[in-house]
Amino acid sequence: MSATINRKQFVQAAVAVAAAVTFYPAESTAESGYAENPMLEIDADWQVRVNRGTVQAGKRQFRIRERQILNISQAALNHVNGERVDGMPQYDPNAAPWARGYRLEKLITYETTAADMLDPATLALRLHPTDADSLTPRKDYDFEPRWGTVGLVPGSRAAGRTVFVDYDCGWSRIDSIVIDAKNAVSVQEGKPHPATPHPPVIDPGETVVANVWVPGRLVKLTEDNLYPIVEPAFPEPRRSGTPAASRLLPQTWAKIQSRSPLKVLAWGDSVTDGGQASDPAHQYQNVFIAKLKAAYPGARPSLTTAAWGGRTSDSFLNEPKGAQHNFDTAVIEPKPDLVIMEFVNDAFMSPEVVEQKYGYLLKRFNEIGAEWIILTPHFVRPDWMGAKTIRLETDPRPYVEGVRKFCAAHKVALADASLRWGHLVKEGIPYTTLLCNSINHPDDRGHEMFV
């Protein structure tokens, strides 16, 4: 499935609501402050209650005079009967869980499968499309229950034969609670998707006040599924006085102003290598160069990319001299004027390690006169971040705080993408719905945030 986004879909809330959405109970007024009790609450397993009160959305005010109950559809469930597999691969228990065998079609994301969407109790394999010649688990085949990959085991009687697979799996959805010009409240249902569902496109005159996150296989709604739109647009700091670029990147700034050639090198891992932008034009570094030219007509930036999927900054340093991904060969020898660095795979580092290793990189860049922008990483699967929820506002990874401290101490330019991802919960967006591979590769919207 294509990762190309409908931009209207992503920014709909920001366009529709000029400022934060605030809820007040019926007996309250805007002057009395934010309501102690939420206006939106779970009423039943699949119902949301909208209490009486006033909704202030930017300059618009909506009066809800009667309590309303909104019905939310249950998570989408796919019933697959007889998915044909010619040449079922061997099951590899030592591979990554999303690569242990055949990927069930309804669970495929970009390079992986969507975790926790398969109902493992429903998985069944057979040798004929219509009869009950069933294969036996563990004797004929094995599977990974969370990630939905399946393969044959040694000695299976299905070896070299066509196999038919039955299973149920869920797809996720984002619904929007909207108010129209007549103060009528309704639910607009989003389109289900295994990994990256988008909020629905709303009609003109409607205002989104909250989203409802319905992950696949959800049993019932809880408060964690309600995403009130508290702040629909990221509050960019006001810029005044001397531009930050002129202070932190003086040579780069001077080349832009003088319209001199500017050599930019994007250095990073699989994200910088393109995963999972829908096409090269949507990769963050290419979008950055395009926007730089648009913002400064006459600027002459050129772009080189040095990227290595699944690796860290240390991986480049450990490569032998002359190798394609050797640090000197790939990063230093092109003699860039500006290095933009993205390494989500560096996120294992402690602040102390960041200071040590990035201190060495800074020394090397200074030696060739290159300036440096470090991107803090986007959010990845919560369990990979040491988190138990996707409702994250503050990045729990010590690495991120270490990068912030390093940049402040050494006057290195920082593009704090992590801070931007932490704001998504206030925009009513579950951040995992921007991960095309359900793990760590952002879609076009995530690449845009880096820019």
Characterize this entry briefly.
The protein has about 450 residues and is of the alpha+beta class.
Overview of the molecule:
This protein is of the alpha+beta class and 451 residues long. 20% of the residues lie in helices and 26% in strands. The strands form 6 sheets. Strands 18-17-19-20-21 form a 5-stranded parallel sheet, sandwiched between helices. Strands 14-13-15-16 form a 4-stranded antiparallel sheet, covered by helices on one side. Strand 17, helix 4 and strand 18 form a beta-alpha-beta unit. Helix 4 crosses helix 10 and helix 7 crosses helix 8. The N terminus is likely disordered.
Largest sheet: 5 strands, parallel
Report Rg. Answer: 25 Å
Number of strands: 21
Could you estimate the helical fraction of the residues in percent? 10-25%
Terminal Cα span: 24 Å
The residue ranges in which pLDDT falls below 50 over 5 or more consecutive positions are 1-19, 26-37
What is the tally of helical segments?
Answer: 10
Order the strands across the largest sheet as they lie in space: 18-17-19-20-21
* Beta-strand content bin: 25-35%
Which whole number gives the mean pLDDT? 90
Form type: flat
> Which class best fits the helix and strand makeup?
alpha+beta
